[in-house]
Amino acid sequence: MSSKLLRGTFILTLGTMISKVLGLFYVIPFYKIVGSEGTLLYQYSYVPYTIFISIATAGVPLAVSKFISKYNALEEYAVGRKLFKSGLLIMLASGITSFFVLFFSAPMLAEIIINDNDLKSKPSDVVTVIRAVSFALIIIPFMSLIRGFFQGHQSMGPSAVSQVVEQIVRIIFLLAGAFVVLNVLKGSLVTAVSVATFAAFIGGLGSLGVLFWYWYKRKPHLDQLLEQDKRQMDISLKDMYKEIIIYSIPFVLIGIANPLFQMIDLLTFNRAMTSIGLTHISEDALSILNYQTHKLVIIPVSLATAFSLTLVPSITKAFIEQDQNNMNRQLNQTFQVLLFLTLPAAVGLSLLAEPIYRVFYEHDLLGAEVLRTYAPVAMLFALFSVTAAILQGLDEQKFTILSLLVGILVKLSLNIPLIKLFETHGAILATALGYGVAILINMYVIKSHSKYRFRLVLRRGLLIVIFTIIMFVAAGVTYKILLLFLSPTSVIQSLAMISICALVGAGIYFFLGIKSKLVYFLFGQRVDRLMRKLRLKT
């Protein structure tokens, strides 16, 4: 891999990580401003918006990036520029169409979500916040295509910077807007949340401004490339988009997998809770499930998934070259890295659920209980993403679509019955079963089409489980001792408990990993370099 590509990948990854971190930690002040009822209203609008934005962009920016990169390598720069110009019009049309559909379908969605007059939220409230966020659909697809164009030219800086700027502008507008409406203008909670959701549009404008600036700066260079065009190929727009659509559909479905599962909860949770006489706590519980705890559960997924997915191009290469040994080695490493990073993080999140929930939100026993149950599902989120990406590398993406549809059907079929039996925990169980079935299908297809055997992963996985149990016991004993002196009802004391238990747990876990040499098998020389930097090894 060239140094330019490595640098570009690093910049884009860094930008994405900064954006994710910002997207996580803004929930602390936002929750303080609008409370549980406000965050639920926010979620009522944001889950449908996420699904609509994925459909509006249809995976096209990523596909355009690959398409442009492919023809640039052939020095057919005019092909990429032709696609870019037509793509801007298509993305703008797609965005405007999606905006109108979401805007005018808001009353129907609201009536399905709010099915009882005794709920705190009213259908009219949900309509207002959904319509406020729908405006972002007009510009986000258009903006995403420009990012894809730059990435296709191996220029990752514009995408990375625009992502970070978009998130910063959105969060500032969101927090400032909600605060001003409630505390300065003395407005309603619905107005405050509507301003917060409209922040997606303002963030998009900020990102678009950055991208236009980069376009202005880079256009002379891009025009020079056009002058070097070989002009040996003339591909019709029909053929271009046929190639792009085939490539992009699986990415769309993987991107909206989690929002689709959340959408099922939005549409069925209140109805199920009302049917068993729990209308009075239904929306509070849904807010905890679909917003507060979900934000935290995604934390252990992000790092492990990002690290594992960097190995997928190597898997693709080995598959194309029919190098069975190399492919087995890459698959082994991918699954082991995923387990090694995600399992202890999910278990630790479950163990320290009460103080962690207090630090981010407030002291709430239901919130802590739901987080404790939900945290292990992070393993399934990560496994689905990685197995789906591996199937993409093996050119078997059609089975990803199949597995996701089956998983959604399982969730949809079991959600209401399980909520009636186990309340909020029933929704978590339905999600776990849906993802579990989808993962089993993916694993079966990987085994069948790559002749991969899971024996080494199962052996090493058992070792990782044993290390995790030892870590859990040590951190758990530490936590119980700290409870004698500290209280999870205090933010400062909760932070102290989290820090001490995390140091004990992580220290023991990585000590066992180093002593068993497992860390070296997974991460190679990176471990030695890190330990030298930390002065743990000479």
Automatic annotation (TrEMBL):
<keyword id="KW-0472">Membrane</keyword>
<feature type="transmembrane region" description="Helical">
    <location>
        <begin position="401"/>
        <end position="419"/>
    </location>
</feature>
<feature type="transmembrane region" description="Helical">
    <location>
        <begin position="491"/>
        <end position="512"/>
    </location>
</feature>
<feature type="transmembrane region" description="Helical">
    <location>
        <begin position="425"/>
        <end position="445"/>
    </location>
</feature>
<feature type="transmembrane region" description="Helical">
    <location>
        <begin position="457"/>
        <end position="479"/>
    </location>
</feature>
<feature type="transmembrane region" description="Helical">
    <location>
        <begin position="46"/>
        <end position="68"/>
    </location>
</feature>
<feature type="transmembrane region" description="Helical">
    <location>
        <begin position="195"/>
        <end position="216"/>
    </location>
</feature>
<dbReference type="InterPro" id="IPR024923">
    <property type="entry name" value="PG_synth_SpoVB"/>
</dbReference>
<feature type="transmembrane region" description="Helical">
    <location>
        <begin position="12"/>
        <end position="34"/>
    </location>
</feature>
<feature type="transmembrane region" description="Helical">
    <location>
        <begin position="171"/>
        <end position="189"/>
    </location>
</feature>
<feature type="transmembrane region" description="Helical">
    <location>
        <begin position="335"/>
        <end position="353"/>
    </location>
</feature>
<feature type="transmembrane region" description="Helical">
    <location>
        <begin position="129"/>
        <end position="150"/>
    </location>
</feature>
<dbReference type="InterPro" id="IPR002797">
    <property type="entry name" value="Polysacc_synth"/>
</dbReference>
<keyword id="KW-0812">Transmembrane</keyword>
<feature type="transmembrane region" description="Helical">
    <location>
        <begin position="88"/>
        <end position="109"/>
    </location>
</feature>
<feature type="transmembrane region" description="Helical">
    <location>
        <begin position="373"/>
        <end position="394"/>
    </location>
</feature>
<protein>
    <submittedName>
        <fullName>Oligosaccharide flippase family protein</fullName>
    </submittedName>
</protein>
<feature type="transmembrane region" description="Helical">
    <location>
        <begin position="296"/>
        <end position="315"/>
    </location>
</feature>
<dbReference type="InterPro" id="IPR050833">
    <property type="entry name" value="Poly_Biosynth_Transport"/>
</dbReference>
<feature type="transmembrane region" description="Helical">
    <location>
        <begin position="244"/>
        <end position="264"/>
    </location>
</feature>
<keyword id="KW-1003">Cell membrane</keyword>
<keyword id="KW-1133">Transmembrane helix</keyword>
<dbReference type="Pfam" id="PF01943">
    <property type="entry name" value="Polysacc_synt"/>
</dbReference>
